């Protein structure tokens, strides 16, 4: 894949060039592909560097080469369609890196069956600067999930918090997956009311960590593991072992330090699960706790 403007500085405070970003993505493409391949991509592009302003892109223009960029067309509620880009190869990742993409985002399901996800995801969003709360929140949610027979993986977000993920066998409809994500978040918030909240509005959260379960709707997205973030230090979203979150900051691993974490795969041992049994357990636990989840509209909230 041809690289243009390799010397352009895209992370000014760190002196990181477009060529370095391109080389990073070429180097980690095989690790990223299981989380990117056959998914409707949303990308963050910064053609002039992170200080030059960026934009989110969901559409694949006609001039993108079909041999590396596929298409997935989705009807919009207000009319018209969105044609998402889809990649299947390392060449597709490299193509976007050359376009100035810093961050990749994907939904929890692939385009061949985006109503049956292969991931369920919880995004922990702490108050600004409260890494201590982010760590406590991750452990608290993990404990609730384990009590419901839902094993979980953890990763840095490259931003302010951590993400928890569980691989799925695609045997559960996305509506049920979202209900499990929300139900477990509600149970965790009820068990730790001073630490966790499901309050969507930041002004109403206080000094609590928002357990964002909304990443599990069709075509909702979350940051891809091994993706860079457009922040000082070029932080990376990195899969971790659970014991590492007590020493690794959510944005503490950058492009220049990520090599150490590429030497092993702490997520290798967890097999995909079926959420059907867990969904029943979550419903019973909510009933027993007297928790009723009202219909939620994030746009009205």
Account of the protein in words:
- It is a single chain.
- This protein is an alpha+beta fold and 301 residues long.
- The protein has two domains: 9-106, no CATH class; 119-219 and 269-287, Alpha-Beta Plaits (2-Layer Sandwich), CATH 3.30.70.3300.
- Helix content is 26%, strand content 19%.
- It contains five helices and 14 strands.
- It has helices at 18-36, 90-98, 131-147, 174-191, 276-289, and strands spanning 9-11, 16-17, 42-45, 55-57, 70-75, 81-86, 101-106, 119-125, 153-156, 162-167, 196-197, 209-212, 222-223, 239-240.
- It has a six-stranded mixed sheet with strand order 11-12-8-10-9-14, with helices on one face. Strands 4-3-7-13 form a four-stranded antiparallel sheet.
- β1 (9-11) and β2 (16-17) form a beta hairpin.
- α3 crosses α4 (174-191) and α4 runs parallel beside α5.
- The longest helix is centred in the first third of the chain and has 19 residues, at 18-36.
- It is globular, with a radius of gyration of 19 Å.
- The chain starts with 8 loop residues before the first strand and ends in a 12-residue tail after the last helix.
- The model has no long low-confidence stretch (mean pLDDT 95).
Record keyword descriptors for this entry.
single chain, 301 residues, alpha+beta, Alpha-Beta Plaits, 2 domains, 6-stranded mixed sheet, 4-stranded antiparallel sheet, 5 helices, 14 strands, 26% helix
Q: In which order are the strands of the major sheet placed? A: 11-12-8-10-9-14
CATH topology of the largest domain: Alpha-Beta Plaits
**Count the strands?**
14
CATH second-level architecture of the largest domain: 2-Layer Sandwich
How many separate structural domains?
2
Give me the secondary-structure category.
alpha+beta
CATH class of the largest domain: Alpha Beta
Distance between the termini: 44 Å
Largest sheet: 6 strands, mixed
The coarse overall form would be: globular
Order of helices and strands: EEHEEEEHEEHEEHEEEEH
């Amino acid at each position: 894949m041809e690289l243009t403007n390799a010397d352009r500085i895209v992370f000014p405070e760190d002196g990181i060039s477009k060529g370095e970003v391109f080389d990073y993505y070429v180097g980690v493409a095989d690790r990223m592909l299981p989380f990117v391949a056959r998914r409707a991509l949303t990308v963050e592009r910064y053609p002039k560097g992170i200080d030059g302003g960026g934009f989110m892109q969901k559409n694949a223009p006609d001039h993108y080469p079909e041999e590396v960029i596929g298409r997935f067309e989705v009807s919009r509620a207000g009319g018209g369609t969105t044609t998402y880009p889809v990649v299947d190869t390392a060449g597709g990742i490299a193509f976007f890196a050359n376009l100035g993409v810093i961050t990749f985002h994907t939904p929890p399901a692939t385009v061949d069956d985006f109503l049956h996800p292969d991931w369920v995801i919880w995004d922990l969003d702490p108050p600004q600067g409260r890494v201590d709360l982010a760590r406590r929140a991750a452990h608290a949610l993990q404990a609730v999930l384990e009590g419901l027979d839902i094993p979980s993986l953890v990763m840095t977000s490259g931003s302010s918090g951590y993400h928890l993920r569980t691989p799925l066998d695609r045997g559960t409809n996305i509506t049920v997956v979202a209900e499990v994500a929300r139900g477990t978040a509600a149970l965790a918030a009820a068990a730790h009311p001073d630490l966790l909240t499901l309050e969507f509005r930041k002004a109403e959260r206080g000094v609590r960590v928002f357990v964002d379960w909304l990443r599990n709707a069709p075509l909702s997205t979350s940051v891809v593991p091994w993706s860079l973030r457009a922040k000082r230090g070029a932080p990376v979203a990195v899969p971790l072992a659970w014991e590492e979150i007590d020493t690794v900051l959510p944005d503490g691993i950058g492009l220049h330090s990520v090599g150490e974490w590429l030497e092993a795969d702490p997520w290798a041992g967890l097999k995909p699960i079926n959420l059907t049994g867990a969904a029943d357990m979550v419903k019973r636990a909510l009933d027993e706790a007297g928790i009723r989840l009202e219909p939620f509209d994030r746009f009205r909230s």
